[in-house]
Amino acid sequence: MIAATDLKELARSCGADLTGIASARSFDFLPPESNPRFIQPQARSVIVLGFRIPRGALRGVEEGTAWQTMAGATPFPTAAICVETTYRLARYLESEGWETVPLFAHSSDLQHQGVAVSPDKPEPNVILPMDIAAHAAGLGEIGRGRFFLTPEFGPRQLFTALVTDLELEPDKIFSGKLCDGCGLCARACPAKALEMERLLSFPLARGKARCYRLHLESCRICRTGILNAPYSSQGEPLRIAAACGRACVAHLEDSGRLKSSFSYPFREKKSQPRRRKSVNQ
Ligand code: SF4
Ligand code: SF4
Question: Is 145 helix (H, G, I), strand (E, B) or coil?
């Protein structure tokens, strides 16, 4: 048997910044096309791994000087460590005799792409929403702006998951409070794609997430720093570097809610305008 603490230490040494564990049964509230037990019926645990996106990867977008989308700065190095760490852990667990399915973030519009192999099974693909998995694994909460927020990095991370027949001690659901409903993410959106007046709710392993209604059609053509989801034209883009995501990063850091800290604030206060050089200097 492998202890949860030993597995987390191994994940950390392999490159994961965050590791949380959920019981596979905690996803039974999800429909078959999202439920990991329709991928691996004998699954007992879902291990969720988080990988920080460096704050510096947002810098050029924030300054308007580089990388209109975050693609040039972040996802490839971050995605490489996600893939490598997730596969290394899957290989380790299987070498110990526990079958393990590595899962990566995909958009839900890739569900229902094929033919069900039997009437009791969903059509491929079964896609586990990573924010719901990260919540069930105790890693944080879903904020009003539909970002998954962790106490360590706010919205700045990517998640992968390992579905396994190894029984592990699950983590408790996160009980802190990160999102204060400030609305700054919505107000930062030039397209008004986040509707503060309309809160939508959806179920979680425990309780419900309550988020502003999001008009995805605006986000898909947003020019403030999105990254489109791989293989998907209709899914939700990665919005962390977009105007909404950067507003949330700045707010959570300024309000002192995050464990990670930096020598200088992410965003200079409007009351402290930058000193501009005179053309004669
Ligand atoms: S900007 Fe404010 S309302 Fe939006 S997700 Fe972040 S903390 Fe919540
Ligand atoms: S991704 Fe762009 S359009 Fe969508 S909410 Fe964020 S800023 Fe607005």
Answer: coil
Q: How far apart are CA 140 and CA 177, in angstroms?
A: 9
Residue 106 has pLDDT above 80, yes or no: yes
**CA distance linking residue 29 with residue 40, whole number of Å:** 16
Radius of gyration of the chain (CA): 20
pLDDT for residue 76 = 58
Tell me if 189 CB under 6 Å of ligand 1.
no
Separation of CA 173 and ligand 2 centre (Å): 29
Say which DSSP state 236 is in: P
- The response to whether residue 173 sits with its C-beta less than 6 Å from ligand 1 reads no
Please work out whether the CB of residue 251 comes within 6 Å of at least one atom of ligand 1. Answer: yes
Q: Which ligand is nearest to the CA of 189?
A: 2
pLDDT digits (tens, 9 = 90+) for 214-258: 999 999 999 998 887 777 777 889 999 999 999 999 999 999 999
Q: How far apart are the first and last CA of the chain?
A: 69
Ligand in closest contact with the CA of 185: 1
Query: Which is the closest atom of ligand 1 to the Cα of 186?
Result: 4
Residue owning the nearest CA to atom 5 of ligand 2:
193
Report which ligand 2 atom has the smallest distance to the Cα of 237: 1
SS3 79: helix
Q: Specify the amino acid at residue 200.
A: L
DSSP string across 88-120:
HHHHHHHHTT--EEEEE---GGGSS-S--SSTT
Q: Report which secondary-structure segment, H or E, holds 4.
A: helix 4-14
Phi and psi of 194, rounded to 5°?
Answer: -105, 120
* pTM score: 0.93
Q: Which residue has the higher pLDDT, 270 or 54?
A: 54
Residue with tokens 């489109």: 228
